[in-house]
Every structure is written in C-alpha cells, then in structure tokens.
Amino acid sequence: MTRLLPLTDTAGGCRCADHPTGPSSEDPRMNTQAFPVVGMTCGHCAGAVTEELRALPGVEDVHVELVAGGVSTVTVTSIDGLDDDAVATALDEAGDYHLAPQ
Which among 1, 62, 76, 80 has the fewest CB atoms less than 10 Å away? Predict the structure, then answer.
C-alpha cells in the first residue's frame, strides 16, 4: 500500500537545494555595496579586480557584472562596508581600472 505524505509547504517548487552560498544576510555587520567600474574588457580583468578586492580586510564576497568596454558593476559584500578610496586603490593595484563618476 502506498501512503501519500501531506504537503507542509505549498510555496511552489522544491527547496531541497536551497542553501546559502555566501554570507548570511541576517548578519547585521554585512554590508553589500555596488561600485561602477570602467576599464574592464574581459574575464581576466574581472578576475584581477576580484582578487584585489577580496584581499581587502573584511571583504567576504565579490561579484563582477562585466560590461566589456563599458561601465561594469562590481558588488562587494563586506563587514562594515568599504569607502571609495579603498576600492579605488584596489582597482589601481589590479590594473588600469577606475571607479566611474556617479
């Protein structure tokens, strides 16, 4: 005899693989900031920028949305946030990359 199990959640879709992949959004110290960056043209550029930003104290995660030859968006999750000067210095260390004027 087959017994059907009752549904405990009907919120459309399996959530068996739902698990956090980055820092907990519940940590009040975490700050996510988006920076407009010019000068990146390829994956190597994005990798260099990511490496330099991850080396900054308190940085937990870096994500680059590359727009080759245009204004890319670099999203940084860190403890207590970063100031523009720290990001600009890291971009300079990575290569010829700069914060875009806002």
Answer: 1
